[in-house]
Structure prediction request, 130 residues.
Amino acid sequence: MTTDGARSDMKVLVIDNLPLDLKLMGLLMTAAGCVVRLAGDGLEAPDILATLHPRLILMDARMPGLEGPALTRRPKADPRTADIAIVIVTAYYHDEAAVRAAGCEGVIPKPIDVDLFATQALAHVPGHAS
Prediction:
């Protein structure tokens, strides 16, 4: 999922097991000029990370397979992927301290605000000018 005006320097991986949420977040980030890859669960993420080095991962906290906080530890422990900003997007998990302790940069609550989502997400990427 990309657009002709996509900026190849802003690659985003979106992980969510709910197809509508996955598609919506992907469309919003694509509309913001990002190159977007989608994953339907946390088990797909390691394979995607092997070929794509995103600057941002947006993921649900509760998914079959690997959940957000557990999935966060893998890229943060690897020097090749430790610099990727990871943001939890969820309706259930709003403990900012626990999210940061797991290595995430922040939380965006669901339901997402379609007018603000991309700006909120990209604000967590170091050096990103909106």
In short: The two ends are 21 Å apart (CA to CA).
